[in-house]
Amino acid sequence: MLALIVAGGRGTRLNRGEKPLVRICDRPMIAYVIDAFCAAGLEPVAVLSSAVPQTANWCRAHGISTYHARGAGYIEDITECIEMLDITGPVFISVSDIPGLTAEIITD
Q1: Is 49:57 a contact under the CB 8 Å cutoff?
Q2: Which contiguous run of DSSP H or E holds residue 29?
Q3: Whole-Å CA distances, 46 to 56, 108
Q4: Could you read off the pLDDT of 59-89 as tens digits, one per residue?
Q5: In terms of C-beta density within 10 A (0-12 exposed, 13-18 middle, 19 or more buried), how is residue 88 classed?
């Protein structure tokens, strides 16, 4: 099953750069989310926009599949990704800024 990790927002309220790359205990938040989904047996796909070029680079460097959406909004980007990837079965959708997410939470 695919896990779409929405990571394309600007994160302007934090004023710390791209939100998925904000570091918690010396790791970017998106790393915790990706690791949790992989450990739960799901295939993560980061849903990105042009607002997060460094996050795109991080995903590429770590072998994470990505989909580059238009950046029209959360629901719009998810819908675009599902349609363009022709996803017809179940899919798990998550944001990229939940560093406390674990495989156990996902599988429960």
Answers
A1: no
A2: helix 29-39
A3: 8, 22
A4: 999 999 999 999 999 999 999 999 999 999 9
A5: exposed
Q: Which of 43, 55, 42 is nearest to 8 (CA)?
A: 55
Sorting pLDDT into bands at 50, 70 and 90, what band is 94? Answer: very high
Cα 83 to Cα 23, 48, 62, 79, 86, distances in angstroms: 32, 15, 25, 6, 5
For residue 90, what are its two tokens?
């179940």
Token pair, residue 58, equals: 């991080």
How many CA atoms, within 13 angstroms, populate the side-chain half-sphere of residue 33? 27
**Contact status, residue 5 vs residue 30, Cβ threshold 8 Å:** yes
- Cβ of 85: how many Cβ atoms within 10 Å? 15
The one-letter amino acid code at 25 reads: C
Give the H/E segment covering residue 34.
Answer: helix 29-39
